[in-house]
Design goal:
This protein is mainly alpha-helical. Helix content is 82%, strand content 0%. The chain has 3 helices and no strands. The longest helix has 28 residues.
């Protein structure tokens, strides 16, 4: 039982790899959200109605 568990744990990525994987999804999503908010409040009326 312990041998199988150790084999599984040895194959898992390091915590730094998990952090980087999460950040690679979170950072673009945050930038996209900020961009959408800026467009919602900053676009002129003629551009808002075109959507």
């Amino acid at each position: 039982m312990w041998v199988m568990w150790n084999l599984l744990l040895d194959r898992l990525p390091t915590p730094m790899t998990w952090v980087c994987a999460v950040l690679s999804a979170v950072i673009p999503w945050v930038i996209y959200s900020i961009n959408q908010t800026l467009h919602r409040y900053g676009d002129p009326p003629w551009k808002r109605n075109a959507k």
